[in-house]
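[step 3/7] inverse_fold.run input=structure_tokens len=77
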């Protein structure tokens, strides 16, 4: 019975090694993807852009011109 448990343990450990390698590779890919994803988001390349949307610069100008320190969402949507 003991040899059967040893065999099962060796089998499970043999399966664990490749899984650990896959996990390490996946973590590296996530680390590389995160900055790329953020860069695309800030460049407006994650979703189709609506040409009718007000440019961010103009929105900031309106906020500054208003002089308000509190901005309601409805005011600028």
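[step 3/7] decode complete -> sequence:
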């Amino acid at each position: 019975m003991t040899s059967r448990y040893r065999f099962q343990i060796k089998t499970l450990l043999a399966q664990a090694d490749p899984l650990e390698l896959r996990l390490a590779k996946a973590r590296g890919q996530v680390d590389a993807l995160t900055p790329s994803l953020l860069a695309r988001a800030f460049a407006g390349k994650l979703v189709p852009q609506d040409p009718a949307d007000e440019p961010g610069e103009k929105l900031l100008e309106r906020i500054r011109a208003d002089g308000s320190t509190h901005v309601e969402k409805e005011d600028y949507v």
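[step 4/7] annotate
The radius of gyration is 26 Å.
The chain has one domain: 2-76.
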